[in-house]
Amino acid sequence: MQVWELERWLNRAWGAEKEIQRLEETYREAFERLTSTTGNPDAIAVKASLDPHKFDGLAALESRVREKIDRKAAIQAEVIDAIDLLEEQRFRAILIDRYVLQMKWEGKDGIEGKENYSRTHVFRLHRQALAALAKKLSAEWD
User: Fold this and answer.
1) Which of 10, 18, 64, 103 could make an S-S bridge to 97, C-beta 3.0–4.6 Å?
2) Whole-model pTM above 0.85?
3) What is the DSSP track for 11-71?
4) What is the per-residue pLDDT across 19-39, written as a single tens digit (0 to 9) for each?
């Protein structure tokens, strides 16, 4: 496995998180439209206030959000299992911070602040961790 392939595989949780955020925003907007007392009478979602099925689409959307959250949790579990193959604790910490906790690189709230490393050192350790994990996974998956 190449390092770039590994990084793309590890980044799947980021994509899942962005999709969840978009769905949650869509849900909030739909809920607001459906429950608004000053809603637009021409809006598609609000046709009749007595419609017993007007929240059916909202329930389906909520179910979809839950499915995406479950999928993200499964991805994170896969990533953690892979990262746990590394013996080096510093490598595991940086990879979990980045790919599971989805922390930013810089700042006191980022990986460099949490791990108390310089930004350059964080990137160096990250590259080394990816190389070590790619080697482990190649041996594991072959």
Assistant:
1) 103
2) no
3) THHHHHHHHHHHHHHHHHHHHHHHH-TT--TT-SS-S-TT-TTTTHHHHHHHHHHHHHHHH
4) 999 999 998 988 888 777 665
Q: Which of 91, 87, 115, 121 is nearest to 103 (CA)?
A: 115
The residue with tokens 């925003």 is: 25
Report the 10 Å Cβ neighbour count for 133: 25
Query: What is the radius of gyration, based on Cα positions, of the chain?
Result: 21
pLDDT band at 47 (very low <50, low <70, confident <90, very high): very low
Residue among 86, 76, 82 nearest 129 (CA): 86
Q: Which tens digits make up the pLDDT trace of 71-124?
A: 999 999 999 999 999 999 999 999 999 999 999 998 888 999 998 889 999 999
- Phi, psi for 84 (deg, rounded to 5): -65, -10
- Cβ-Cβ contacts under 8 Å for 38 (sequence gap 6 or more): none
